[in-house]
Amino acid sequence: MPATCSVTAVEIPLQASIVGLYPVTHLSDAYAVTLPAGASTHPEQLSRFIFSQQPRWVDGLMAIRDAVVSLFGLKTANQLTTAAGQRVGIFKIYSSLAQEVVLGEDDRHLDFRLSLLCAPSGSRGEQRLVLSTVVHCHNLLGRTYILLIAPFHRLIVRSSLRRAARAGWPLASGA
Q1: Is 173 inside a domain boundary?
Q2: Is the pLDDT of residue 115 over 50?
Q3: Which of 87, 106, 122, 133 stands 20 to 30 A from 94 (CA)?
Q4: Total tally of structural domains belonging to the chain
């Protein structure tokens, strides 16, 4: 596997705006990938690319998730995708800056944010993309939900980053 397909578990970068966002965090993780020379470093563009490269089996997992959460009155993927406001797939855009886009959603069981942060990595001018997640649960339903989906979440994030890297990152303007 080329170096650009290597996905590494890392600490959430201190410069990520989601650090310290919630008084209590029930799930937090971060995964990094080195972007190849000439790749875009625009986080919102990269987030759209990553989430458009989802493996097909993710759709199956989302269908199961939606069937279960609808029984509890929680938002389904279809409701999230069609909700008002700027979105990247099912995720609401909370902020979009030159180096970071913050996506997420609030629901009655939990709130979560994803940070896609592009930052220099090393001395060779490489850029690293770090996808970080933080979740704050409001109640027992949220804590149970996150306990059940956490392994799938981690698998989906790593797989999505690998798949996007294999597909070939979008090029930077002028590259």
Answers
A1: no
A2: yes
A3: 122
A4: 1
pLDDT tens profile 117-149: 998 887 677 899 999 999 999 999 999 999 999
Taking the CB of residue 123, how many other CB atoms lie within 10 A of it? Answer: 6
Nearest to 105 by CA among 135, 130, 128, 138: 135
Buried b (16+ CB within 10 A) or exposed e, 136-171: bbeeebbbebbeebeeebeebbbbbbbebbeeebbe
The answer as to whether 91 is a domain residue is yes
H or E element that contains 166: helix 140-167
**103 found inside a domain:** yes
The verdict on residue 174 lying in a domain is no
Residues 163 and 45: their CA atoms lie apart, in Å, by 16
37's torsion region: left (phi>0), alpha (psi -120 to 50) or beta?
beta
One-letter amino acid of 61? L
Structure-block tokens of residue 97: 């800056």
CB 41 within 8 A of CB 82: no
The helix/strand/coil state of 74 is: coil
Residue-range definition of the domain harbouring residue 111? 3-167
Tokens of 116: 């896609």
What DSSP state is assigned to residue 39? B
